[in-house]
Amino acid sequence: MFAKIDIHTHILPKNWPDLRERYGYGGWLSIDHHGPGCARLMVDGKLFREVGANLWDVNVRLAECEKHGVQMQVLSTVPVMFSYGAKPKHTLDLSRILNDHIADLISRSPARFAGLGTVPMQDPERAIAELERCVNHLHFAGVQIGTHVNDWNLNEASLFPFFQAAEKLGAAVFVHPWDMMGKDRMQRYWLPWLVGMPAESSRAICSMIFGGVFERLPKLRVAFAHGGGSFPATFGRISHGFEARPDLCAVDNPVPPRNYLGKFFVDSLTHDPDMLRHLIGLIGVEKIALGSDYPFPLGEKEPGRMIEGMKDLDAATRERLFSGTAREWLGVAYIKSIGHARHGGQ
Known about the structure:
- The protein is α/β, with parallel strands linked by helices.
- The protein has a single domain, classed as TIM Barrel.
- The chain is about 40% helix and about 15% strand.
- The strands form 2 sheets. The chain has an 8-stranded parallel β-sheet with strand order 1-5-6-7-8-9-10-11.
- Strand 7 (about 140-145), helix 5 (about 160-170) and strand 8 form a beta-alpha-beta unit.
- It is globular, with a radius of gyration of 19 Å.
- The model is unreliable at about 340-345 (pLDDT under 50).
């Protein structure tokens, strides 16, 4: 049995302040504990999602990790909490509440948890300051950000200093879809999650490739959720488009997209063995890390179960998927967290 490091897990505090009251306007997430071990996440009185105790109860979470052989979870907030549309000072305040909560959990179980902070990306100066606090003071591996920031894609010039700061700090960046494109025209059948989310991830990857972010920051460690979304399945079209219409695609970066395969990371959450095999062939197993989207229903209920069932994968490949790539992506912050655990942590 190989050790598992799950880079894609979400957590919230059991309770947090009434944000409408705290900031003076709506649009914020609240939690309604309506029964033992169950709650409703609400936005302005409307149901966002039903959740269970494993979203906030560390004991339940650790028991499930033991059951499924997960040595370490990388904790990040639920993307609806990004709050990029709010006033920046309020998003920063909420970010600090959420980040301090994750830091407290890590301090109590440093061998079992690593952290990704959230930052107010709509205000890059504030985002950089909170990124520095997350890495230098809270000892997080890095941060989780959205696939876009309001009207900005990730190639936006205003965001480049943030990515520069992340590279300089050696911070890992996890890009997660949120506020899905076209959601107003896909209100049935859960389509924002089934269609919009994969498209969001491809949008983010293409923006960073075509915008030259990876070209200008070769040491930046970025991982994309959900196996890179629709990017792997549509890469042929993306590459052909670049070659066919460089006047449209190569305006900011003349380097072909194919050159960036293997330059960024993704998690393993493809839900399909053949898709994971395709992904391994496309970007290499060295860039794929176990990710489950715990504890949500679109995730993998038993992290790594699909990989364990792929009998054609050799031991070295399984080990790489389960922990090797995660260690490389997490970098120095991960090593520090393990060192802390060995010197008196739980």
